[in-house]
Amino acid sequence: MDRLTRVPGLLYGGDWNPEQWPEQVWAEDVKLMAEAGVNLVTVGIFSWARLQPGPDSWDFGWLDRLLDLVHRHGIAVDLATATASPPAWLVRAHPGSLPVTADGVRLEFGSRQHYCPSSPAYREAAVRLTRTLAERYRHHPALALWHIHNEYADHVEECFCPASAADFRRWLRERHGTIEELNRSWGTAFWSQHYDSFAQIEPPRTAPGPVNPTQLLDWRRFCSDALLALHRAEKAVLDEVSPGVPVTTNFMSMLKALDYWEWSRHEDLVSDDAYPDPADPRAHVNAAMNYDLMRSLKGGRPWLLMEQAPSAVSWRPVNLPKRPGLYRLWSLQALARGADGVLHFQWRASVAGAEKFHSAMLPHRGTASRGWQETVGLGAELRRLGEVAGSRLRGQAAVLLDWDSWWALELDDHPSARMRWPELLRPWYAALYERGITVDFLPPTAEPDGYPLLLAPNLYLLDTATADRLTAYVRDGGRLVCGPFSGITDRHDHIHPGGHPGPLRELLGIVVDEHWPIPDGATTAVRLNGTDLRAERWSEWIETERAETVARYHSGTLAGRPAVTRNRLGAGSAWYLSCHLGADVGPVLGLALAEAGVGPELPGLPDGVEATRRHAADGTGYLFLLNHGPDEHRVPLRTPGTDLLTGAEAAGAVTLAPLGAAVLRLPAAAQERA
Ligand code: GLA
Q1: Which of 9, 27, 481, 620 has the least C-beta neighbours within 10 A?
Q2: Would residue 6 count as lying in a domain?
Q3: Ligand 1 mean position to 121 CA, how many Å?
């Protein structure tokens, strides 16, 4: 069985910051944890100053006592390396370890994440702390998981200090080899930007006007790599000193700053922090998308929801609590999309510090609170769902996600600044979500063969190798749907020769004559089978070469010209959307889904009900039904099953209250008909 840690069943617990409390409180904590069914707590995330009060003094007594205590209560520990918040003594001894902004402002001590990723002093101290902790606790029976650092790229994702500049130059030398190659790659013939040597290069600090785009793109790549190098330094120590204990670091959902495809190669398991906004009635759609990404990062392996808020957060301008039932529903949603555990920020609500108004599993009011009742209630339900751990789900379609292309797409001085990857992706994802289709994400280097339908909402930066793979996929019978402003540049962010969409031109059977951005607030009609859809942000003057026209522009300068096309190639077809259809993209994707023969997990789902199915290795299915809407719904079932939440047999249909859920165990033989 594919288990995340040695702890059986689903994981339940959260960040515990015991250093904020007198030790007497700990005894109550563990008693209440046991009552709530907590089986894993994350300890030490921000404990550096407490663990190492000075350069050569250590204080482990409290952590020894704490780990012994939780172990006596049968609770396992996700032990943090505590490196996300360096202590004051380190910062004052090495002021150069503080990060510097693009404008040259050195960020002060007094918050957290105040380190320069390329600072040798910070790295040395972080690795030393990691080694000291690993050597002390590697055999502790409470230890089940190592938690490196905390949310890399939170608050600070780049630093422009001299140490970062030197590291950037080293990175550039490795990437480009020679200064001539760098000059070619950066296109420095433009605006007299030629360099004679690497020594002349600086990070892209604030400059009079637009900075060289390839320099900016390389900078993005470098910043992701610089943080990853830090992470790998800690990981190497843990692998060496504490082999066999899995290691993770908490990701931040779909985060621009870090190329999580690359990062996840260095994780033993993927874990994520997710904070959907209770004020947003569509938050669960975005959450589903992030969870699908987390599952995909390790090819479908179960992942861990490392942090969520039991109720309100404290960092939005207005922080709404989760109304009764929402916490449970959203927790089940993570499981429905492949998580094997639900952890939180944090166990006990703080009384001091910037997060004292953040909700916790144990709120300020204590066990009389509504929050505590929900904490205990969810713990009991997760125990009932234990057998789900290790089961997997697979998307019916796949979405291509490429950080390089994301970074390049959002560089300045493009035809429109409104082409932002998350905003292009979200409506496509939502259209599939609403049709009950679960998607997996794929990196551009993947072979998409196993999927009948591949979606590429945007591939601004695209190398010819990826284009060739996509062409082979279509020839072999795949269906590709490609969004606008794709195939534009190569990996140096240079325009592909021969007209847009460059290496996709033959595959898509079209050529772009000119980009035609749509002004803010305006829309252009696109007529599809007699109905008008609204394009926003973006349209293109395209000409079909081999493709057939599926929909035409129906207003504005482009009226009558092709808007959506399809090119049959070999056994498959490649669709092109030359405009951003926003919330109206559904009907077009619906046609492609039908052509690819992709249907929902459970046909006939009422609006607002989400259905996914996980499969255990023995073929047992777990059908998750989640009602995100305000109305009660009856969901028809083709196969009877047992609702693990209630123990009741369900046949014919399941009734879901508003925010209600069911998790049905379906016997292996019934899978095909369910
Ligand atoms: C992040 C951090 C936590 C805490 C929470 C608050 O997830 O990792 O330390 O700050 O946010 O929501």
Answers
A1: 27
A2: no
A3: 25
pLDDT at 604: 87
Q: For residue 4, how far is its CA from the centre of ligand 1 (angstroms)?
A: 22
Tokens of 108: 């002060």
Domain of residue 309, residue span: 11-157+226-388
Q: What is the pLDDT of residues 321-353, one digit of tens each?
A: 999 999 999 999 999 999 999 999 999 999 999
Last residue in a domain, options 174, 190, 216: 216
Task: Please give the structure tokens belonging to residue 127.
Answer: 């690795």
How many domains are contained in the chain? 4
- Distance CA(12)–CA(348), nearest Å, equals 14
For residue 553 and ligand 1, the question of a CB distance below 6 A is answered with: no
Q: CA 55, CA 65: separation in Å to the nearest integer?
A: 23
Co-location of 151 and 167 in the same domain: no
Token digits for 515? 């980009």
State the pairing for strand pair 661-666/621-627.
antiparallel
Nearest ligand 1 atom to the CA of 275 is: 12
| Contact residues for 621 (Cβ-Cβ < 8 A; gap 6+) | 613, 614, 615, 641, 665, 666, 667, 668, 670, 671, 674
Mean pLDDT across 373-396: 98
Distance 72 CA to ligand 1 centre (A): 28
- Would you state the torsion angle of the CA atoms of residues 22, 27, 30, 32, taken in this order, to the nearest 10 degrees? -100
- Ligand 1 atom closest to the CA of 313, numbered from 1: 12
Together in a domain, 172 and 142? no
In a domain, 602, yes or no: no
Q: Which of 216, 246, 261 is the last residue of a domain?
A: 216
CATH number at residue 449: 3.40.50.880
Do 532 and 645 share a structural domain? Answer: no
For the chain, the average pLDDT equals 97
Q: Is 151 in the pocket of ligand 1 (CB under 6 A)?
A: yes
Q: Are both 511 and 535 inside the same structural domain?
A: yes
